[in-house]
Amino acid sequence: AQSVTQPDIHITVSEGASLELRCNYSYGATPYLFWYVQSPGQGLQLLLKYFSGDTLVQGIKGFEAEFKRSQSSFNLRKPSVHWSDAAEYFCAVIVEYGNKLVFGAGTILRVKS
Amino acid sequence: GAVVSQHPSWVICKSGTSVKIECRSLDFQATTMFWYRQFPKQSLMLMATSNEGSKATYEQGVEKDKFLINHASLTLSTLTVTSAHPEDSSFYICSAATVGLSSYNSPLHFGNGTRLTVT
User: Fold this and answer.
1) Residues 6+ apart with CB under 8 A from A69
2) CB contact under 8 A, B112 and A43
3) What is the pLDDT of residue A43?
């Protein structure tokens, strides 16, 4: 069965520093990959998605992610983190012939000033 | 953009009572809605998938008699937690898929969630 692994439960970065959140998936066929952000007590907001084509995907709020098939990874990056980026980030994969999203465990991002 | 409204945003109820949570797609039609449950500091776990006009499909381990899902129209799905107990306290989130588009091209739109506390 498909699964998503986010190895880092917590990450703390300084404001202005670069950020990379890791995501690995386990799925035989081409996955459809997503990154979502969740602020405390809120729903999820889609940051970006990858279906096909260019493996470097640009999203909202200055985020980008790169799909690397050889590493089964879809890491999220941002060159300069803002304090407002503090939240929990979820990587997710969709089943090829369905609508179901399978979520990773999430990574909590803390931003220190 | 597409908006999913979830109501209420938080609710406190007594053990043994039932609670209904509504999920509405405000500016699009959603043939499919999903209900997730999120425990503190954990990821979202899919509870069930509901398609308009048909019975919901529940994930393994989810009690269908306890978590009643109704998807009577293309814009509304409801989740009723029946005979709630403290262990049902959780954060419930719905999402909706846009009708008419490939599911792969239409990101699932999420509600803001409902915090349920059963005392």
Assistant:
1) A55
2) yes
3) 82
